[in-house]
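Pinned message: reference record for Aspartate aminotransferase family protein
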Amino acid sequence: MNVNLTPNDLSHVVAADRAHVWHHLTQHKPYETVDPRVIVEGRGVKVWDATGKEYIDAVSGGVWTVNVGYGRETIADAVRDQLVKMNFFGGSMGSVPGALFAEKLLEKMPGMSRVYYSNSGSEANEKAFKMVRQISQRFHGGKKWKILYRDRDYHGTTIACLGAGGQDERGALYGPFPDGFVRVPHCLEYRKQWDDVSGADYGRRAADAIEEVILREGPDTVGAICLEPVTAGGGVIVPPEGYWPRVQEICRKYDILLHIDEVVCGLGRTGTWFGYQNWGVEPDFVTMAKGVASGYAAISCTVTTEKVFEMFKDDASDPMSYFRDISTFGGCTAGPAAALENMRIIEDENLLDNCLAMSERLMGNLEKLKEKHAVIGDVRGKGLFCGAELVADRETKQPVEEKKAQAVVAGAMVRGVIIGCTNRSLPGMNTTLCLSPALIVTPAEIDKITDAIDGALTEVFG
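Predicted structure (C-alpha cells):
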C-alpha cells in the first residue's frame, strides 16, 4: 500500500467516517463498538483498507462497477484534462466528450441510435419508464402505460424503480409504489416453476409465462417490459436457451417496447459489449451505468432506437411532444471523458477475450468446489459474472441459513478476498455467492479467489 497518509491521519479518517458517514446498505448499530472498514487505495484487482490489509476484490468495487481495475492513470488524466477545459454545462447543450462517446458507444450497439445521459442506473431506468409513459399518452390514448418486470430482477433504488423491482426485501417498508408495474415469473431453471420441461423448452416456457401475464392484463394496456439480460442481485440467473428469442417474438406480437437493463452486464461483463448481444436480441431501450466508466466518474446512459427517438420530435409545433426531462449531472463532462478512455482500454487490452478466458477458469474452479462441497447446489454465470447457490440439501434445494452464507463472505474476507452474496433481497433465498472480478483478472488471481471460498466453506460447513 502506498498511501500519503500517516497512521494518525488514517485513524482520524476512520473516526470521522464512524462519526459522520451514513453508509449504503448498512446497519450502523455495530459501529457503536467497532470501526467501519475504510478502503484507502486500489491497484489492479487489489484494494487496501486503513489498517493496511490487502484484499483481492472479486466484486469490482463491491457493486460490479470497476471493470478495468483500479489505478488507471489514463482515465484520471482524461477526466482531469476535460474538467479543466470544460467541466459542466446543462444537457440541453452538447459537449465534446458527450458527442464522441455517444458515437463510439453506438458503434458497439447496431440498431441503436440515441444516447440520453444521466448519472446513475436508477435514473437511467427512470428515464426509460418516463419515455414509455409519454409514448403511451401521445400515441395510445394513455392506455398502453403498464410496464412489466421480472421476479428477482432489480432496476434501481428510487420509488418507481423499486416498484419495478422483483426483490421484495429491497422494497420492504418503502411502499406504496406507483401503479402500472406488473410482475412476470423468473426464469431460473434450477428452481423450476414448471417440472415437465427443461433446457430450451424451459426457456420458452418461462417466456410464455410473460405472454400469459400480457393476456391477463390486456395487450393494449402493456407498453414495455424491462428485463436484465442476466439477473444480477437476484441470484446471477442466466436465462435458459430459448428464452430470449421467445421474449423478442412476444414483444413484437403485442407491440411492446423491450427495455434491457444493462446496468450490471454492460461494457464487457459477460464477454460481449452488452449482455443482450449474447442472444441476438434487438431492444428498443438499453440502460447502462456501472461499468460504463468503471467508477472513475458518474455516468449512465439511456440508449434508444431511432424509431423511439422520432416519437419525441414528430410535431415541433406541439410544445408537449418532446421529452421534457433533465438530469443535472448528465451535463457533467467527466463521465463521458472517463467512458471514452475506459472503452479504449477494453479494446486495446483485449479485455473481452480475457473475460471469456477467465470465465472458463472461474466456472471450472467453481464446479470443482461443487464436487467438493455438498453445500453448493448450483453454479451458474456468464463471462466474469458468476454465482454459486448454497443449499442445506441438494435433493430438496432447501437454502442454507442466510447467516451461514454471510459467514462464508466473512471467511473469504479474512482470507484476503472480497466476495458478494445476495443480501436482504429475496425472503429466505439470500444464499447465492456472487463473483464479478475486474476484466483484467489473471489466472493466479482467479485461483486465489476460489481458494479463499474453499477455505471459508470448509470453515463454516466442514
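Pinned by admin. Summary line: The chain is about 40% helix and 15% strand.
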